[in-house]
Write a structure and sequence with these properties.
Blueprint: E1 3-6, H1 7-10, E2 22-25, H2 33-38
Antiparallel strand pairs: 1-2
Length: about 50
């Protein structure tokens, strides 16, 4: 999942407002989720039905 993901290329049926969006996934070097949150990062769980 690492890298850039254009929503119109990976989602089954993207809504119009989602077609221009993209996500970027990075390998995490933080030891805890709280440490990442303190630096402004947000964790999002991937749902199988999105694909």
């Amino acid at each position: 999942l690492l890298g850039e993901h254009r929503w119109d290329e990976i989602l089954k049926d993207p809504r119009d407002e989602e077609k221009e969006r993209m996500s970027k996934a990075y390998f995490c070097l933080y030891r805890t989720q709280r440490a990442a949150q303190k630096d402004g990062w947000k964790r999002i769980h991937v749902e199988q039905e999105w694909f």
